[in-house]
Amino acid sequence: AETGARGRTVPAGGHIWWDHRRWDGANEVRAVIGSWPAPFAGPDRQVRADPPLAASAEAAGAVVTTAGTPWRILVGSDDDLRRRSDRWREAGDDPAAAGVAAMMRGDGAQILDPRGRLVPVPDGHAVAVAVAGGLREEDGLSLVVAGADAATAEAAAQRIAEDPGLLVGQFALAFDRDGEIVAEAGRP
């Protein structure tokens, strides 16, 4: 860290995330899903969001809009999201540089293992992962639920919409075709 804990002020309503994973693999995970609904919720944050997570985000306090904003919640097949999102396409081209904790490769999910490497997930066909737009808050963030196909992504997103607590404290998640969690990033 650039500063110690004493050198940081936590704003009201904020919280601290201690990252205890090994650092000999991926040195930087630039964004995590585990603070949901933050940073998407709040009266000053406008978010473009895909169903079924649009309703979930709105219920959590996000201002869902169709206007241009760097804050996105994307749900769809990996191929579709690569066409719709430069950020997701670029993360797929170089996951290490993008600092992502999960990625789709063909029909299979890959997730960050405890040593910081993206590894295939048996029965993993969808991921929920955060992709940072840049290093500044105004660069935005994308919560991406990508699947091998649209139905698989929708199943994972529906599972999250029904139980948003699944994301709490997570780097990223991998799901099977039915929307059940099969792996958590950074954990054995």
Textual characterization of the structure:
With 188 residues, this protein is α/β, with parallel strands linked by helices. It has five helices and ten strands; from the N terminus they run E-H-E-E-H-H-H-E-E-E-E-E-H-E-E. It has helices spanning 53-59, 78-84, 86-93, 95-98, 150-162; strands spanning 46-49, 63-64, 71-77, 102-105, 108-112, 118-120, 126-132, 141-147, 173-175, 181-184. The protein has a seven-stranded mixed beta sheet with strand order 2-1-3-8-7-9-10. It has a three-stranded antiparallel beta sheet with strand order 4-5-6, with no helix packed on it. Helix 2 crosses helix 3. The chain is globular and about 40 Å long. The model has no long low-confidence stretch (mean pLDDT 86).
Question: How do the strands and helices of this protein lay out in sequence?
Answer:
Elements: E1 46-49, H1 53-59, E2 63-64, E3 71-77, H2 78-84, H3 86-93, H4 95-98, E4 102-105, E5 108-112, E6 118-120, E7 126-132, E8 141-147, H5 150-162, E9 173-175, E10 181-184
Parallel strand pairs: 1-2, 1-3, 3-8
Antiparallel strand pairs: 4-5, 5-6, 7-8, 7-9, 9-10
